[in-house]
Amino acid sequence: MSAEPSVVRPRVGVWLIGARGSVATTAVAGCAAVTAGLHPPTGMVTETPDFADCGLPPLSALVFGGHDVVDCPLPKRAEALAAGGVLPPGLPSAVHAELAAADREIRIGGPLPGDTRDEDDLVESLASDLRDFVGRHGLARAVVVNVASTEPVPTGSALPASSLYAAAALRAGCPYVNFTPSAGLHHPSLATAAGSSGLPYAGRDGKTGQTLLRSVLGPMFAQRALAVRAWSGTNLLGGGDGAALADPAAAAAKNAGKERVLADTLGTVPEGEVHIDDVPALGDWKTAWDHIAFDGFLGTRMVLQTTWQGCDSALAAPLVLDLVRLVARAHEAGLSGPLGELGFYFKDPVGNGPAALGEQYARLLGLAERLRRPGGRDGVPEVRR
């Protein structure tokens, strides 16, 4: 009796922009830890029963690489994150081989200070790195994910760095996810290229803390017919994001998504604004505080206050892994254009869709159903040997 043929899963590339940052390092280390059974997939929506049999690539099939302009090796970055309490003690050494392998696939990005290349040359250089990555590893596809620091809102026609990387993804034939509030594919100069690429894309600005709460609480007030008079907030955070958001222009780009969630769920923009303060001592940890003034029956004035204390990288990394798996599967299934069903993950989603988290989750489940294939255990194409 002959033995059953072995099943070879197609491998999928994960190309991270900002590949040596905290979120990227946590995603690489976390993927390795979950794959090895060292930790459960806490925070990964795609590992819940609702997403079984969707044909998503397994975590073991993901191959990591990326672009960055810093040179701190991933194993060292992981050690620093463990020292700060972001990664569990001992995890960097347990997954050292996987971190080192990903680090070998990181290429210098751009534009660098004094770079004389024009936009087309820069885009071609970045796209060439991507094509080389896919070819050398024999990947079925690669998903580009922007997890770099927030940029100011661009002015003029010149492409900012995030949009150069996005253009390179399109040129290399790779689906794209913008996990930041930076322009990326939102830049007007890329609208035509994105629309004609035939590629799926998603974004922007991952929803991990304060805005996640707002997308739940805003609909609550609206559905209970409670009149919100003012909604103010403060964010205290350190690390690379804290330093980047100390720039008022970058902070404005970040806050735009937070304000849009309230406008969309409440139907109006209440008084108040969000202040973002850089506190370097906090490192990768953040505290977000909201003060909500609202009116009840007969004009009775009331207040709700919320405090969210979390680790930004540990909140973001499982979402990045979710998005890679969903977008890769969407690409495999022939979907293209903005994946509005992934609005569940973003402050400022592409495409049309609701802003309330419950409605967004229902749309995400609809996408999961679209990705399922009749017959077969999980719908993943098999190569038998």
Automatic annotation (TrEMBL):
Location of the Myo-inositol-1-phosphate synthase GAPDH-like domain: 209-313
Annotated Gene3D superfamilies: Dihydrodipicolinate Reductase, domain 2, NAD(P)-binding Rossmann-like Domain
PANTHER family: MYO-INOSITOL-1 PHOSPHATE SYNTHASE
InterPro entries on file: Myo-inos-1-P_Synthase, Myo-inos-1-P_Synthase_GAPDH, NAD(P)-bd_dom_sf
GO MF terms held by the record: inositol-3-phosphate synthase activity
GO biological process terms on file: inositol biosynthetic process; phospholipid biosynthetic process
Family: Belongs to the myo-inositol 1-phosphate synthase family.
Protein name (record): Myo-inositol-1-phosphate synthase GAPDH-like domain-containing protein
Pfam family, one: Inos-1-P_synth
Transmembrane segments: none
